Amino acid sequence: MSTSVLTDSSLSDAIRTACDRIAPTWPLDQSIAVNPYWGWRQQPAVQASAALGILAGTRLTMPRAWFRAQWEAGRFGWAQLERATALVGGSVSVAQAVDALAADGPAVVRLPLVTDLLDAADWQTLHGPGSIVRHQISQHCAAFFDDDQARWQLDRRPGLYRTWKTQLATDRALRWRSGRRAMLPHIGALPDAPAALIDAALQGLGLPREAVANYLSAVLLDINGWAAWCAWLRWQAQLAKAAQDDHIVELLAIRLAWEGLLQQDTGAAADPAWRDRWCAADARIAELAKASRIDWLLQLAVELAYQQPLADALALACTDRTDASRRSNAQRPSVQAVFCIDVRSEPFRSALEAADGSIRTRGFAGFFGLPIAYRPIGSALTRPQLPGLLAPALTVTEGTTDDVGSAGRAGTSSADLASGAEKTCGIGLGQALSRRRQQALAWKRRWSELRSNASSGFGFVEACGLAYAPKLVADSLHSTKLLSRWEDTGLPANAVGSAPQLPLPNAGAVDATANMLVGVLTAIGLPDGQEGFAPLVLLAGHGAQTANNPLQASLDCGACGGQSGDVNARVLAHLLNHPALRSALAAKGTTIPDNTRFIAGLHNTTTDDVTLYEADIAGTGWGADATRALESLRRALAEAGRRTRAERAPLLGLTHLAADDAALAQSIRSRANDWAQVRPEWGLADNAAFIVAPRRRTQRMRLGGRSFLHDYDHRADSEGKVLELIMTAPMIVTNWINLQYHASTVDNTRYGSGNKTLHNVVGGRIGVFEGNGGDLRIGLALQSLHDGERLRHTPLRLSVFIEAPRKMIDRIIDRYDVVRQLVEHGWLHLLRIDAEQALVEHWTRAGWQQASSENDAADATDEAGTPLRAPALI
């Protein structure tokens, strides 16, 4: 291709387009759910689905046979198909949709890359060129990006592409058809600059300008796992406002170089017919989108079957004044318990309210609005404790002292710690404790190096192997204890679990922190307009307990960056109990009663136990009301755990133990410690809805652990600022979670991580291989989605229900491109709860339509009497 055909600017645009289409994947120790279609959100979902089908061979809907099974099982029917056809403008009839259930859907076959054109026999191997290329690139990336696992590491200074080029020239394992000696000149002639390589390779392939962006996208999607890792590196650079990270461009150059090398190795020239097929890629995408309309209609019908009963129940809840009356006549609640919006919190919240009617629960993002990172004392590690969309602005650690007070607690000196005094509450941990931690971590590192060193490894096994026998036996026995945390390494028993805190060195820091707390309390909805502050406010983070699981972080709190939420809960409780901060808050119009205490807790979502960090506030002067509330809370949490475990038992195959809490609790806690257990819990499987409304709308419902619940009262948010935060942060996070589960279910080969029992950790924390190579696996393992007999996750797009005025919601959609793209392009469903009219409306491009079953959307009209038939819900 001549430069007159592909200018520098058009090549840059094509590279940027291809790279932007790749969603990032987070490392194992910070694993959060990511919408793998994020880079396609600018297009309608049906169009993006067709593009991904042509460029990657994937699909965004289940096979037609799955829809047929749902139809036969009665999970959707004629009524849902009628409504779905009305919503999409009647381009497909109900009869056509029903007939289509008996047929196979359109074939999804990607356009071929050069590797796809070459016959596997040319390489005299059972594996085709494509799998060999992916394996070779993957092994190089694993070595290049490894910071934590390998003893010997590559010299990374030349960059990803140039180190690959050097390594390829010395690789004697590859079986070139023309022979290694014949290929060395071709390898040596590859340009040194990635952009120059991409330009030269495209000229060699002879692709015209209109085909380049699609072809480059297909090339990256062929090595999507490592492309996603490189996209994460770019994402982090952008969050940190650092220089542009171009690892993904270098990866593109590597994969594209293979296209040219294989042509040179086989002596095959680019086939004009092959080029013509790529020139017609957009036309093929349009054809597939048209052919897939029935599949998306069926997808919408299944979603309506779930969505409509929930909409009816929410509309009915608006007419129920019983709870509102009870609340208005009730005294101040004994406890206000704030939980994460995570779907696993929903059944526990219901159980807690049922256990004690004086407890009010609230839902809020589990990082509790704190823009923090956490650095364990004596450690070089700093990890984010907030959503992946955000960058931390503050760092917390144990043992912080400040000169504006310590919430009424006595400090602990270094001498006290050295002697093991029982005073440690997280204040004044000091240098002695830091030194102990550093020494312990250094010893563990030396021990690990001794085990893994090539010169001492075999001798280590001979000399010390038997010493591991007791530990192996102990790990294999049933245990119900909590797993030890690496963060506690080297800490004396009285310092384990010390509370991380935010330093407040001066009055300016107090004022800035108080401003932050005003925003946090406003977003949470405290003080409540009717209830004020309760004597005791529980801030409950959540985390999972599982053994021998490299994907554990994916079960922790996504809002906390794939960590447990205890750090955020404890920091916020400490700040809100702080006398100086309370004074500053009062000066800003937010007065916390003297007898109100904040306490942090951690909800273990695997066992449904809740740990209360009472020691954090042991010296803050508990009043009688808070003391009584704490005793009641302990009892209610225990009862809520019992009820929730019984509700979850059938999902875990433990129905026979549901009536015996002692046996059930022991079994579940043993599962949490079982290193061979591949399904310690179901995580967020089967998530389907995000409800943003006052708790009274859902308090009487059985939502089955499928709904994210975020408390919100628009009457206290006249300017819509809190709703703006919800729709631009938690709504996007829940969309990421929902579509990660969707993608991992619909196409686990490309967007999931396969069989968990075959996982091998890459680079200590980067990700996993399934087996010993291939592409980096991303997404969820099969065991997180399927119980061996049937799917445990139903792939439905998220239904977002918001109780707020139309104008307020519409203004946010218009203001933010990302929100508008998700809503307008059908990556989620947006519905509005109208409490005054006791109805629920569905957003469509033609306007808001009533979503209740009593008034079919096909008959709905606008104010001018024009029928409302939305053209593009799907």
Biggest β-sheet description: 6 strands, mixed
Percentage of residues in DSSP E strands: 5-15%
Low-confidence stretches: 1-5, 400-429, 855-874
Total number of strands: 17
Separate helix tally: 32
Mean pLDDT: 86
Helix content: 40-55%
Question: Could you say which structural class the secondary elements and strand pairing correspond to?
Answer: alpha/beta
What separation lies between the terminal Cα atoms? Answer: 39 Å
Q: Characterize the overall form.
A: globular
Please state the oligomeric state of the protein chains shown.
single chain
Overall radius of gyration = 29 Å
Secondary structure: elements and pairs:
Blueprint lengths: L7 H13 L24 H12 L7 H9 L5 H10 L6 H7 L13 H4 L11 H17 L14 H11 L9 H9 L5 H12 L3 H13 L2 H16 L7 H20 L5 H8 L1 H11 L1 H25 L4 H8 L5 E6 L4 H11 L3 E6 L7 E3 L8 E2 L9 E5 L15 H5 L11 H23 L4 H8 L4 H8 L23 E2 L5 H18 L11 E8 L22 H12 L1 H9 L9 E8 L4 E4 L11 H25 L12 H13 L15 E4 L14 E4 L10 H8 L1 H17 L1 H4 L7 E4 L4 E4 L28 E5 L2 H10 L1 H8 L4 E6 L4 E6 L2 E4 L24
Parallel strand pairs: 1-2, 1-7, 3-5, 7-8, 10-11, 10-14, 14-15
Antiparallel strand pairs: 3-4, 5-6, 8-9, 12-13, 15-16, 16-17
